[in-house]
């Protein structure tokens, strides 16, 4: 399986395990899991066939480790816009985490902070490199530093997903460090 095919399968999985399972006739359980055979069958019936070997490769090689396989089930690790309960316990974050975004979003973020938008939580990265890659998806990235130590001391709750993405309900502007003019 080539790199282009791997990316296509990964995007297909993201769309249907995080956002639109019903579009191909899938129903996720309350924790976001679905039977792998049901997923493969539904995808084929809706014009996007892939094999179990391709699925395993995508899960094993995805740079962001977006998916987890447990026995005969698969789920997305985070980023859902549909209702799921990942049952992640509260976790103590490191003193600082990072959020990648694009310059057009800065004015809104300065005014209202980081919000989950159509997802369940705000996603934060433990390193600048990852945040830079996330922010670069929509052009020139901007990386914000989040004072998660202060947030945690002030009672904000954090969770960490199976692939190391930090999640929190929102980040008020006072906990953000904005880059200076370029």
From TrEMBL:
<dbReference type="GO" id="GO:0003950">
    <property type="term" value="F:NAD+ poly-ADP-ribosyltransferase activity"/>
</dbReference>
<comment type="similarity">
    <text>Belongs to the KptA/TPT1 family.</text>
</comment>
<keyword id="KW-0520">NAD</keyword>
<dbReference type="GO" id="GO:0006388">
    <property type="term" value="P:tRNA splicing, via endonucleolytic cleavage and ligation"/>
</dbReference>
<dbReference type="InterPro" id="IPR042081">
    <property type="entry name" value="RNA_2'-PTrans_C"/>
</dbReference>
<dbReference type="Pfam" id="PF01885">
    <property type="entry name" value="PTS_2-RNA"/>
</dbReference>
<dbReference type="InterPro" id="IPR022928">
    <property type="entry name" value="RNA_2'-PTrans_KptA"/>
</dbReference>
<dbReference type="InterPro" id="IPR042080">
    <property type="entry name" value="RNA_2'-PTrans_N"/>
</dbReference>
<comment type="function">
    <text>Removes the 2'-phosphate from RNA via an intermediate in which the phosphate is ADP-ribosylated by NAD followed by a presumed transesterification to release the RNA and generate ADP-ribose 1''-2''-cyclic phosphate (APPR&gt;P). May function as an ADP-ribosylase.</text>
</comment>
<dbReference type="GO" id="GO:0000215">
    <property type="term" value="F:tRNA 2'-phosphotransferase activity"/>
</dbReference>
<protein>
    <recommendedName>
        <fullName>Probable RNA 2'-phosphotransferase</fullName>
        <ecNumber>2.7.1.-</ecNumber>
    </recommendedName>
</protein>
<keyword id="KW-0808">Transferase</keyword>
<dbReference type="InterPro" id="IPR002745">
    <property type="entry name" value="Ptrans_KptA/Tpt1"/>
</dbReference>
């Amino acid at each position: 399986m080539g790199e282009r095919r791997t990316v296509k399968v990964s995007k297909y999985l993201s769309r249907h395990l995080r956002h639109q399972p019903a579009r191909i006739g899938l129903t996720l359980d309350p924790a976001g899991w679905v039977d792998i055979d049901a997923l493969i069958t539904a995808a084929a019936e809706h014009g996007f066939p892939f094999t179990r070997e391709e699925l395993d490769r995508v899960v094993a090689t995805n740079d962001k480790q977006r998916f987890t396989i447990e026995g005969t089930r698969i789920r997305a690790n985070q980023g859902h816009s549909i209702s799921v309960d990942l049952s992640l316990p509260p976790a103590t974050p490191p003193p600082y985490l990072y959020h990648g975004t694009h310059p057009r979003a800065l004015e809104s973020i300065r005014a209202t902070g980081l919000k989950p938008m159509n997802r369940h939580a705000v996603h934060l990265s433990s390193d600048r490199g990852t945040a830079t890659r996330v922010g670069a998806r929509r052009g020139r990235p901007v990386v914000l530093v989040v004072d998660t130590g202060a947030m945690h001391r002030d009672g904000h709750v954090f969770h960490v997903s199976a692939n190391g993405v930090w999640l929190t309900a929102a980040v008020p502007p006072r906990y953000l460090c904005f880059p200076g003019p370029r």
